[in-house]
Amino acid sequence: MSAFLEFDQVSHAYSQQTVVDTMSFTLVEGEIGCLLGSSGCGKTTVLRCLAGFEPIRAGSIRLAGQTLSLPGHQVPAHARQIGMVFQDYALFPHLTVGDNVAFGLRRWSRAERLRRVASLLDLVGLAGLARSYPHELSGGQQQRVALARALAPRPRLLLLDEPFSNLDVDLRSRLSAEVRAILKQENTTAILVTHDQHEAFAMADRVGVMQAGRLLQWAAPYTLYHQPASRFVADFIGQGVFLPGVVTGPACIETEIGEFCGAVPVPFDVGQRVEVLLRPDDVQHDDASSRKAVVESKVFRGSEFHYTLALPSGRRVLAEVPSHHDHPVGEPIGIRLEMDHLIAFPAH
Amino acid sequence: MNYNWDWGVFFKSTGVGQEIYLDWFVSGLGWTIAVALVAWIIALILGAVLGVMRTVPNRLVAGIATAYVELFRNVPLLVQLFIWYFLVPDYLPEGLQTWFKQDLSPATSAYVSVVVCLGLFTAARVCEQVRTGIQALPRGQAYAGLAVGFNLVQVYRHVLLPQAFRIIIPPLTSEFLNVFKNSSVASLIGLMELLAQTRQTAEFSANIFEAFTLATLIYFVLNMSLMVFMGWVERRVRVPGLMVGGK
């Protein structure tokens, strides 16, 4: 499978401020990519470069073999066939829902246009609302109209800029699953930008973590979570704590909770001091274990408890424990590590 | 104050042909409307073009429009009128100059001058309103238009201007009324519009108070009708929720 979208060594700067720094990634046709990062990391600027709203300083952007952007040259935004869904939806308030969706279809015949609008409104679950105006719809409905409008001209690439950030949590998770299904159904290649990793994981085939204009890692969500390439990514993705340890063998590290050997060798010398990443799901509750940690605080999540446990050294680890194991704060409980492979970084 | 009000004066003969004074007011009102409407059309078209120019991402184009606005807003209307009427004709090409000075009747050449003057003057003010209307729209609107494949001209035509004009109807209304009021400067270059006819009535009949009272009433009723009309237009094209946007 060859790359459909090639974002190659791209840099962008607003006057002197570098916002995107030699960033590269590729996407296969039909895949959904996601740029994840806190606000100000440059992820939205990447979208704007892709859309053609911003020129690039270095590198190149290619889509389906066509060069879209080079320094000093760019295909204008309207000629790119790249659709975009905006954070505030940017629906046209003076047009009906139907006209909003039909907006990009002016070259289509009337019959085809009506058919396309009807099928899209059906797809996003808004059949029958074609004659309403945007202000008459709820936030979630407006979001769907924005998606339908962007999909209508069959864009080669769809960009979604924090598309769910204005919605409440329930709707957000439901809609992100729905949107993924819709994109897959239309076989649309898409790039999503978000600061919400649940959203990223739920929607994307490939996720990139950005920090200060750089792409730290571009990988499948599973890889990102279980094999973070750097300490920053490990810290940023999911929850977890770092526990100091010493390498005792090719795949073994000794920590204060005991020695643990993973299935995959760690790239460190024996005797080196490292920090091991412990995810909440790595720490198991085990009454039989002689390793004890004191419950410091707990959060009830329904199906599980989220415990913060204090080790004898005073360091804290997090543990996800099925919710029938209800222990009061202050009680020591037995714990055990349960990991496939170790994730460790040199101690600093 | 011993003043004998005589409201019957308007139906008295002016001594000029068969005309009564009321005829002068009717004729004057006709010229006022003819000046204001044509000047307003010029102002609206030119102002929209200039307003768009001020918002496009091109320094030269935006700069030209800005210079226009500064020039026409900062010179008094009366000065501009005298320039258009007394100065500009002398610098016209030969053919146009003869046409303006000899072929046109004095009333028509005054009319042309005042319409051009008022149209260009008001265009600068309309321009500023169109610009603020466009700038009040969220930036995403233009991007959304571009992203579905519209070029910049189409984005202005179908996305930005339809919304901007809806937003600026209230300030445009007051500009529209201003054109009618400002048209009274035409009396200073001899165009017999409403104010000139009022003064002439006052001089001929010596019923100054009646003449100016009637003129005031006519201007008032005219402008009130325009306000009601524009209010109706505003309600007709209103898009609920549009005014609350803006980012």
Comma- or semicolon-separated keywords:
heterodimer; A: 348 residues; alpha+beta; Rossmann fold; OB fold (Dihydrolipoamide Acetyltransferase, E2P); 2 domains; 6-stranded mixed β-sheet; 5-stranded antiparallel β-sheet; globular; B: 247 residues; mainly alpha; MetI-like fold; 0% strand
Q: What's the SSE pattern of chain B?
A: HHHHHHHHHH
The computed structural class of chain A is: alpha+beta
Which class of chain B in CATH terms? Mainly Alpha
CATH class of the largest domain in chain A: Alpha Beta
Give me the CATH superfamily of chain B: MetI-like
What is the multimeric organization of the chains shown?
heterodimer
Q: What is the CATH third-level topology name of chain B?
A: MetI-like fold
State the fourth-level CATH superfamily of the largest domain in chain A.
Answer: P-loop containing nucleotide triphosphate hydrolases
Overall shape of chain A: globular
Number of E strands of chain B? 0
Number of helices of chain A: 8
What is the count of distinct domains of chain A?
2
The radius of gyration computed from the alpha-carbon positions of chain B, rounded to a whole number of angstroms, is 22 Å
Please estimate the helix content of chain B: over 70%
Fold and architecture overview:
The complex is a heterodimer of chains A (348) and B (247). Chain A is α+β, with helices and mostly antiparallel strands. Chain A has helices at residues 43-51, 97-102, 110-123, 139-151, 169-185, 197-203, 221-226, 231-236, and strands spanning 5-14, 17-27, 32-36, 58-63, 66-70, 73-74, 82-85, 157-161, 190-194, 206-211, 214-219, 241-249, 252-255, 258-261, 273-278, 283-285, 292-300, 304-310, 316-322, 332-337, 344-346. Helices cover 22% and strands 35% of the residues of chain A. Chain A has a 6-stranded mixed β-sheet with strand order 7-8-9-3-10-11, sandwiched between helices. A 5-stranded antiparallel β-sheet of chain A has the order 2-1-4-5-6, with helices on one face. Chain A has a 5-stranded antiparallel β-sheet with strand order 14-13-12-15-21. In chain A, α3 (110-123) crosses α4 and α5 (169-185) packs parallel to α6. The radius of gyration of chain A is 24 Å and the shape is globular. The mean pLDDT of chain A is 90. Chain B has 247 residues and is mostly helical. Chain B has one domain (22-237): MetI-like fold (Orthogonal Bundle), CATH 1.10.3720.10. In chain B, 74% of the residues lie in helices and 0% in strands. Chain B is built from 10 helices and no strands. Chain B has helices at residues 21-55, 59-74, 77-87, 94-103, 106-135, 139-147, 152-167, 169-182, 194-205, 208-237. The A-B interface holds A 51-53, 76-79, 81-84, 86-94, 103-104, 133-135, 149-150, 152-153, 159 and B 138, 140-141, 143-152, 154-155, 158-159, 162-163, 166, 239-242, 245, 247. Chain A: InterPro entries: AAA+_ATPase (IPR003593), ABC_SmlMolc_Importer (IPR050093), ABC_transporter-like_ATP-bd (IPR003439), ABC_transporter-like_CS (IPR017871), Mo/tungstate-bd_C_term_dom (IPR008995), P-loop_NTPase (IPR027417), Transp-assoc_OB_typ2 (IPR013611). Chain A: Keywords: ATP-binding, Cell inner membrane, Cell membrane, Membrane, Nucleotide-binding, Translocase, Transport.
